[in-house]
């Protein structure tokens, strides 16, 4: 049971489905995030230097001073307000999904404040991505469990953040956890993934792993 009431309402509004479930993160999985965010930062006279696997500590102002955590948070919020002008589909999406798209239920689960739901849905729609969208301000695991709803079919989850994959693994021990991240320079800085996570190099490998896990 998701402990985010808004997330729960969104999930309850999605038509019931008994097919295997494939849940996709949005930023860095369905949409490029870091590349467009870095371009937008440049337009705002900030620069992003991939020094560590984080946003904090890697963003610098025009004078070369490191942006504070508060500023980084504000920049991300401002970026999400203009996301439709900057974000593009991740390489391989949605083509790699084509062989299984009709055989599974696909839902997008994005960790972002609910107030950005409409902007994100409009952006996805403008890119012809029509899968149901769910926003959450809490852990992803309980939301995926609620989406699955105890149906007699497997679940796979694709995300670029280990903590989201582990959250889903904790809530649904049988879930296939697949890591995928569009931005190569930041991915190179990522700490090793937990053993329970399948590392996918690109969307084609992620889709093949999902297909195997979902038995389709
Ligand atoms: Mg993401």
Tell me what the structure shows.
By secondary structure, the protein is of the alpha/beta class. It folds into two domains: 156 residues, HAD superfamily/HAD-like (Rossmann fold, 3-Layer(aba) Sandwich), CATH 3.40.50.1000; 52 residues, no CATH class. Helices cover 35% and strands 14% of the residues. The chain contains eight helices and eight strands. The strands form two sheets. Strands 5-4-1-6-7-8 form a six-stranded parallel sheet, sandwiched between helices. A two-stranded antiparallel sheet has the order 2-3. α4 links the parallel β4 and β5. The longest helix is centred in the middle third of the chain and has 13 residues. The chain is globular, with a radius of gyration of 17 Å. The relative contact order is 0.21. The model has no long low-confidence stretch (mean pLDDT 96). The structure holds magnesium ion.
């Amino acid at each position: 049971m998701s402990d985010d009431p808004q997330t729960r309402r969104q999930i309850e509004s999605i038509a019931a489905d008994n097919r295997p479930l494939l849940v996709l993160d949005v930023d860095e999985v369905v949409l490029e995030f870091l590349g467009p965010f870095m371009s937008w930062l440049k337009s705002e006279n900030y620069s992003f230097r991939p020094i560590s696997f984080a946003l904090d500590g890697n963003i610098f102002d025009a004078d070369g001073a490191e942006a504070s955590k508060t500023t980084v948070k504000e920049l991300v919020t401002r970026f999400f307000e203009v996301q439709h002008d900057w974000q593009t589909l991740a390489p391989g999406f949605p083509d790699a999904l084509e062989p299984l798209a009709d055989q599974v239920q696909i839902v997008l689960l994005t960790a972002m404040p609910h107030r950005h739901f409409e902007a994100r849905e409009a952006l996805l729609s403008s890119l012809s991505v029509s899968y149901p969208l769910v926003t959450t301000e809490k852990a992803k695991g309980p939301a995926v469990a609620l989406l699955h709803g105890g149906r007699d079919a497997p679940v796979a989850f694709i995300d670029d953040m280990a903590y989201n994959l582990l959250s889903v693994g904790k809530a649904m021990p049988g879930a296939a956890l697949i890591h995928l991240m569009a931005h190569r320079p930041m991915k190179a800085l990522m700490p090793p993934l937990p053993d329970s996570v399948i590392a996918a190099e690109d969307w084609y490998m992620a889709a093949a792993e999902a297909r195997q896990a979902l038995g389709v």
